[in-house]
């Protein structure tokens, strides 16, 4: 790859690295959105719990709450840690002017697939939360 240097003789990001950097930052932003959204649903579940009478509904709420807690405390935080580490790898790679480091590219693709998979799982959970809470409101 040919890198372009600016007037300061520092590297500017190549289009492929800029795209990877941008995609990583987008996933980091998404993790913050997921945390906020799941906290919102967690509060909704807490508000719905006192008016529950059905044992089945209570079990469903417990299961959903456990999933929310897992994603809030482990799943999302683990992804954020990996994304931040990935960004620091990019910074070190650029400082060392080692843009040919193929390991970074391989890890990037795997990390992006992992983030997409996490996004799908969270979307499924949010859909389940919406359905559960919608059912609760209708049955009130």
Summarize the structure.
The protein has helices at 15-48, 55-95, 102-139. It has 140 residues and is an all-alpha fold. Helix 1 (15-48) runs parallel beside helix 3 (102-139).
Describe the protein.
There is one protein chain. The protein is mainly α. The protein has one domain.
Assign the structural class, choosing from mainly alpha, mainly beta, alpha/beta, alpha+beta, or little secondary structure: mainly alpha
Describe the oligomeric state of these chains in a short phrase: single chain
Number of strands: 0
- Summed over residues and divided by their number, the pLDDT gives a mean of 83
Number of helices: 3
| Low-confidence blocks of residues | 1-8
Question: What features would you highlight for this structure?
Answer:
disordered N terminus, 140 residues, mainly alpha, 3 helices
Strand and helix map with partners:
Layout: H1 15-48, H2 55-95, H3 102-139
């Amino acid at each position: 790859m040919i890198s372009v240097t600016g007037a300061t003789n520092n590297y500017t990001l190549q289009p492929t690295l800029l795209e990877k950097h941008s995609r990583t930052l987008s996933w980091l932003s998404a993790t913050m959105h997921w945390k906020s959204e799941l906290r919102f649903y967690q509060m909704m579940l807490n508000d719905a719990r006192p008016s529950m009478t059905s044992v089945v509904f209570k079990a469903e709420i417990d299961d959903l709450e456990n999933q929310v807690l897992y994603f809030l405390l482990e799943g999302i935080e683990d992804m954020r840690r990996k994304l931040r580490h990935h960004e620091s790898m990019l910074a070190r790679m650029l400082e060392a002017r080692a843009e040919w480091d193929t390991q970074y590219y391989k890890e990037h693709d795997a990390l992006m697939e992992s983030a997409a998979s996490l996004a799908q799982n969270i979307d499924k959970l949010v859909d389940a939360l919406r359905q559960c809470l919608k059912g609760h409101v209708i049955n009130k």
